[in-house]
Amino acid sequence: MNKRVTIADVARTAGVSMMTVSRVVNDSGPVSESTRQRVLLAVGELGYRPSGLARGLATRRTATIGLVVPDVANPFFAGVAKGVEQIAYAEGYNVFLGNTGEDPEHELTLLQSLEEKRVDGLILCSSRLPEADLRQALQWHGATVLVNRQLEGFGAVLVDDQRGAIALVEHLLSGGRRRIGMLAGPETSHSCRLRLLGYDSVLQEAGMQRRQGWMLRCAPDVAGGRQGAINLLQAYPELDALLCFNDLVAVGALQAAAELGRSVPDDLAITGFDDIPLAALMTPPLTTCSVPVFDLGDQAMRLLLEQIGGCDEGCERIVLAPELVIRGSAP
After folding, report:
1. Exposure string (b/e) for 34-43, b if CB count within 10 Å is 16 or more?
2. Checking DSSP bridges between strand 121-125 and strand 64-69, what pairing results, if any?
3. 65 phi/psi in degrees, rounded to 5
4. What are phi and psi of 148, to 5 degrees?
5. Is 190 domain-assigned?
6. Do 177 and 285 reside in the same domain of the chain?
7. For residues 173 and 206, is the Cβ–Cβ distance under 8 A?
8. What are the residues whose beta carbons fall under 8 Å from the beta carbon of 291, sequence distance 6 or more?
9. 124-162: per-residue pLDDT in tens?
10. In this structure, is residue 327 part of a structural domain?
11. Are 166 and 153 in a shared domain?
12. Considering the entire predicted model, what is its pTM?
């Protein structure tokens, strides 16, 4: 195994001090042109590559941004990450991805770790932290953009979740569904709160009211959706539709319906949210709301770059519109 070339090796070869090498490599101080050329020649001959940490200490930049998501297995967040990474790469930034596993304590630990690593900026997706804890966790971070979460004083890229839920419930009502249950997501989910508002507002406008018990929270994944749907449908067999927090929950609900002998969509309609690739492949394919996940990441990274560059516009809020996609689970 070859020995790693150090700054001391370069200094020795060029006949200069390590401080001079650091100034040349990081372009951080006055050095004569002849000395600069000797150092660069030594760097090339030895194949020296300065560590990210060393360069960061010298320039106060690490060329790295932190991206924190609740679940890397969810295709929604994979799409967001792709949007972030494409812009980051084009601008010379590396992306450090952190997965919280839907665990608020792990989220806090990750945020602290990223602050200690002195990343140049942070993109935090769908935080599960209560507002007070989130604000405290972010107080030492510099440039920060939130995705699918609002917090006063921070830039954010959001989905109009209330509008999406309204479109789904109106579609269910137009199809003759009247007993609509909801498999909701985490209580701290900003998206879930807005979707609940949309759900309730449409029912109220129609002169209806959600019965207590028709809304059940579950883990925002396939297993959570399956168990949640079993519990809800067994407790309230009269339900003729399920509005699911996301497509993964809806996939689990489809599994539960099959196990319980409920025909979809004949006597039970099921809708998702996000329009992940799996949604169109299910039997029947899922009616859902399509969310521009790539654009969420793209816009978040652009806002973050504006903040890193000192532009106040990086603290604005961008709201993207979802689109109703009608398929076989709720035609």
Report:
1. ebbebbeebb
2. parallel
3. -120, 150
4. 60, 35
5. yes
6. yes
7. yes
8. 76, 159, 164, 273, 274, 275, 320, 322
9. 999 999 999 999 999 888 899 999 999 999 999 999 999
10. no
11. no
12. 0.81
Peptide bond into 284 cis (omega under 30): yes
Alpha carbon 213 to its chain's center: 30
Amino acid identity, position 280? A
> Tens digits of per-residue pLDDT, 94-120?
999 999 999 999 999 999 999 888 899
> 150 lies in which domain range?
64-159+293-322
For the record, the structure tokens of 63 come out as: 């060329």
Give the DSSP H/E element, type plus range, for residue 23: helix 18-26
Residue 27, classified by CB atoms within 10 Å of its CB into exposed (0-12), middle (13-18) or buried (19+), is exposed
Assess if residue 331 is contained within a domain. Answer: no
Same-domain check for residues 281 and 303: no
Residues 6+ apart with CB under 8 A from 296: 79, 80, 83, 147, 148, 157, 159, 320
d(CA 48, CA 325): 54
Domain boundary among 21, 42, 59: 59
Kindly report whether the peptide bond that precedes residue 265 is cis, defined as omega within 30 degrees of 0. Answer: yes
Which residue type is seen at 184?
A
The number of C-alpha atoms within 13 Å of 97 and in the hemisphere containing its C-beta is 16
CATH number for the domain that contains residue 40: 1.10.260.40
- In the numeric block, which tokens belong to residue 155? 């830039």
Cβ count within 10 A of residue 151: 17
Query: Percent of the chain beyond pLDDT 90?
Result: 75
User: What is the number of domains present in the chain?
Assistant: 3
Amino acid letter for position 252: G
Query: With a cut of 70, which residues of the chain have pLDDT below it?
Result: 1-4, 27-29, 50-60, 312-314
